[in-house]
Amino acid sequence: MKVVVAAGGTGGHLYPALALVEYIKKQQPDSQFLFIGTKDRLESQVVPGLGYDYVGLNVKGLVGNPLKKAYSAMLFLKSVVTAKKIIRKFAPDIVIGFGGYPSASAVQAAAALKIKTMIHEQNSIIGLTNKILIKKVDKIVCCYQKAYHDFPQEKTLLLGNPRASVICHEIPHDIHEKYRLKRDKKLVTIVMGSLGSKSVNDIMVDAIDKFKDKNYQVLYVTGKPYYEMMKGYENDNVRIVPYIDDMPSVMHATDLIISRAGASTLAELTALGLPAILIPSPYVAANHQEYNATELVQSGAAKMILEADLQVDRLLSMIDSIIDDETALNVLKENAKKLGKPDACQDMYNVIVEMLGE
After folding, report:
1. For the segment 326-358, what is each residue's pLDDT rounded down to a tens digit?
2. Across the beta sheet with 303-304, what order do the strands follow?
3. 356 vs 358: CA distance, rounded Å
4. How far apart are CA 71 and CA 80, in angstroms?
5. How far apart, in whole angstroms, are the C-alpha atoms of residue 262 and residue 304?
């Protein structure tokens, strides 16, 4: 199988793509892959570092004043021509777009060349790139009911995010010694991503001392920029670290997580059935995280506090009401599992095989 994967801009687009590619490699070791992305974003560093063939396109998002948008549109048209040459030379069986503006260029080029195409939408609200591609692609895979109903039903499948398969099939290791955690206490993990959140760290300055006498322990991930400022607040019941490089193992050991609501994060939480309090980032495009979190909240699979409403007492009260109530924990766990798609990789692979008539 020869596959072109187009994903650009953020880890939310890239890491689901990498998860699917790794799965395909295990099923068909002789498969060949070509990644198409940007020249200067995350994927341009990560993908070549993993040993995959990579081509970067000169594309930019349609943002800014009318002049900048016109320039971006011109770059896009040129990038489609470039993508056609790249794809024609590689001669793939299928081109799969995972979002971001390079995805639009590559998938549009593939459709013009009559090559099989698929797009993946990670969020509950359809992104601009995938809106552009809806009529051009053969298959659409999404993760949320809202997106599923907004896409054309005849070619859309609700299969989930490939990251869910990774976390479910990865064998966790014991984390208690590494993070100096007690084995006889429930664990609450608070993490706002690798960079952390200034507003959450500001709240945690006052919250950490109040965790001191709780009957559960806290693993608090500050984000690298804030660790030096926060590390002095650690106490016997709160462990403070700048980042976590073994998140799947930590999630397996966690009883309640407080996190952002990125697409891959929620795919992992629901696949594991991990109870969560979600604090959506208000700084992402189209407010995707709040919409993602709302789908979980409406299904009884998580709680949510908007960053604008975040206060110490409210956060502690919500944590206590969940962690001290086995029924509340189990309800969140079971409802999260109902939304989880742990077989997303396998299901997407099966659709691809069917599309190619293999």
Report:
1. 999 999 999 999 999 999 999 999 999 999 997
2. 238-241, 216-221, 186-191, 256-259, 276-278, 303-304
3. 6
4. 15
5. 13
